Amino acid sequence: MKNYTTPNYNKLGEWLDAWQEPLYRYAFLRLGRRDEAEDVVQDAFLKIASSSTQIKNPKAYLFRMVSNGCVDVLRRRGRNIPLASQTATPAESYDTEAEEEYQRIAALLLHLNEKEAEVIHLHIHAGLKFTEIAELLDTPATTLKSRFASGITHLRQMLIN
Amino acid sequence: MNNNNYNKDEQQIIQMLTPSTEVKPSADFRQRVLDAAAAQASSQQASATPQRRVRRISYWLGAVCSAAAVIAIAITLTLNTPAYAARKYFSNALISLQEAKTMVMKLSVRTQADEPIDYINPALDFVPATVKVIYDETMLWSIEKKNGRTVLYKGAEATGNYIYQWIGGQDGKTGWKAEYRGVAGDLAIMLDPRILLEAEYRTAQRNKGTKYEILDLGEVAIVRVSTSAQGNFSQSDYMKNTSLAEANTIREYTFAKDSGLLYQMRIMVMVDKKPVPVVESESIIFNEPLSVENLYDKEAFSRVEFLDMEAEPAQASSLTNIPADKAAKIILEAMHNWDMDILNTAMHYFKGDVMKIVEARYKGLKLKSIGKSFKSGLYPGYFVECKVILANGKEEKLTLALRNDNKEKVWLIDGGL
Questions:
Q1: In chain A, where the domains are located
Q2: ipTM computed for the complex
Q3: Hey, of B7, B8, B17, B197, which one would you mutate to test binding to chain A, going by the most A CBs within 10 A of its CB?
Q4: Whether B121 contacts B241, CB under 8 Å
Q5: How confident is the model over B366-398, as pLDDT tens digits?
Q6: B2 inside 8 A of chain A by CB
Q7: Which residue ranges form the domains of chain B, and what is each CATH number?
Q8: Residue range A120-150, pLDDT digits in tens
Q9: Residues with Cβ < 8 Å from B263, sequence gap 6 or more?
Q10: Does CATH place domain A4-160 in 3.40.50.300?
């Protein structure tokens, strides 16, 4: 790569190698569609690449961008659709196994509130530590741990019942 | 994530929330992002230098601009790869269409008015067609070729859930009904731009063997998609260019940039490496008041006798377990004396008035020659070329379409007469 206008362009390859997979996994398990997940992650990388300022914590920046992107997609998708059916129903079968996993996990997370589900996505699917999520969501790590525990407990109780 | 911090029950739940399969981006994702970033960077550099302003043209002027003029004034959007930019347009249009309640689209299609709705032929003249759709819980719709075939789905009825087809024109009494199983293929393209755009969006996402061009005209943007024909043409090109799916096409979508809505579409088939327009939208109007009664001509509909296409053909041992060309020979020979034992089964799709017309033309024919059966394109059956001498002494060349994808595996004539 050459002649890039911002210093961030030169680091793009390095950032892609480090975070494209957890970012994609996180986006896919929120959206359930490869095309939308890749769009959201690509948008985040393009945004950070074109930013004229040096990003202090690119990992947090990228996850924040992807999280916001997912919210936008879900909001658009959910404009006319009841909440219970907001999970994506992909029309193609080239990603069947991953799509089935998404459907299974999304069905479980529907029983939790948004905040609990968000921490679970970021901790389990994106593999972020609670301290990293704390920075991302601007929320104390202890609160996040408690949300996570509460989500797990809800699911356990639901499955027992 | 370290699972050791959790007790056994919690670990089980965490395990359930963890995907059991790999969830990874596409193999070329990294390169696509780098390419898009490079394109973005060069675009930003280019936009830093002063450029002559492109005159904003009105929608109508945009609609009538010749392709050459369009190219001359166009700016190619290079923010990202063309496929990525195309996806954005398709995606925006899909979002805009979420709110659509009805659509009336006037089209010009190179086709024959009484042939099936998805039949196209670049050599024929344009026939006006109207597509009307109500985007209800179940999509209700009609497609009518002027003085030709109409296809209608008006929702579930007490007697069943049928899709109706009939041919207007001279008698207007010929019709068929079949169980409605949703729409697919070219029909879906004409009925629901959302299905079309969704398909295009996904094709753009995969971006294999498909080329994209984006032309920014100010108020509108044109996305031009070039795709290759689908189907098997290794045995014969007979079905090439008879439907949009079976043709090398260039599809042009014009989007209004402010609303994101699809504003115009044009589909061209490549014939001898030259694009020939076969479908052109004259107008696309969304959210005009439209009820089921407006979808079709009730009076014409009431005159039609609809044959039930769902009924299974009768058994006919002479037309099973043989190749298609042998079946064609038996059927054509049966036409000499109009042997109803064979023809009643073999001509399952030709009942009522249609059967009378076929009988009047072909009764008494003599088979002169018959070729080997072959497959072509996406057609599920076989084709057989033959020469016959009609009762009046005239020679006629036929290409019969036969299929046996029914429960009894009986060969039936599906077309070509």
A1: 4-160
A2: 0.85
A3: B17
A4: yes
A5: 989 998 888 887 778 899 999 999 988 899 898
A6: no
A7: 61-305 (2.50.20.10), 312-415 (3.10.450)
A8: 999 999 999 999 999 888 889 999 999 999 9
A9: B59, B63, B220, B254, B255, B256, B284
A10: no
